[in-house]
Amino acid sequence: xxxxxxxxKELLNEFNKSMEELNIRTRDRKAIPKEIPDNLVLKCPNCxxxxxxxxxxxxHQVCPYCRWHGRLKSKERIQQIMDAGYKELFRDLNYxxxxxxxxxxxxxxxxxxxxxxxxxxxxxxxxxxxxxxxxVMDSHFMMGSMGVVCGEKITLLAEMAEKKxxxxxxxxxxxxxxxxEGILSLFQMAKTAQAIGKLREKxxxxxxxxxxxxxxxxxxxxxxxxxxxxxxKALIGFAGKRVIEKTIKEVLPKEFQSAEFLLDxxxxxxxxxxxxxxxVLTKLLKLHNYK
Length: 291
Ligand SMILES: [Zn+2]
Prior knowledge:
Shape: globular
Radius of gyration: 21 Å
Strand content: 15-25%
Structural class: alpha/beta
CATH topology of the largest domain: 2-enoyl-CoA Hydratase, Chain A, domain 1
Largest sheet: 7 strands, mixed
Distance between the termini: 33 Å
CATH architecture of the largest domain: Alpha-Beta Complex
Order of helices and strands: HEEHHEHEEHEHEHEHHEH
Helix content: 40-55%
Bound molecules: zinc ion
């Protein structure tokens, strides 16, 4: 087994070396020889180096060179974090979406591309044998925006956690409130915050901030956790950097709104690499006497 692993590592090293040479010769993706199928390699958007797709997947979609963390689909995240046998909750909430020009088309397209019904997926299951309730937001579904259904699912899950005395873990990832639902989407901020507040009187709520967590989600349940974790270099904030700079007429620090900046300011408790998340969550749950 070890031999196989070493051999694969050698092959990967050889491949990476040749890719590096390509990187040196040109920064153009088109320079990849035609005989390498396009779906075998991808280019890291952060360090611009070529990565074997297989290796990227094996690394939980993290760049092996610069540790850039790619954005996961909700199902991918669940599969990385949860033990087998989890159960999805509230998938088919009955709701008549508001009529807004082009909204239905956008929703339909998001449903088709992600094979999900909404921007958040809720599940009950176990993490290393410990019972938990987990919600995962998905940036691939209308930028993880929070409308009525998303807010309702988060609220129902928090209420269930309180009732069943289970810990709640939310993976936040969102562009903010869903503008197509207007004021109804903003109501979700207060509703989710209230449900989380009630849960926290008795239970445990851990939030993992992932790239990006912004707008109405960062200003509601994503900022209210007992323990706040974040993935490296995640963008976390309320309004965009440029908007703030124009408003206050000042230049903001380069690292502004990054997980590292916010850790330094005390907003985040710990930055955790994706491959360590399951272990860290398990330790935190055990520390709070969940078995
Ligand atoms: Zn990279």
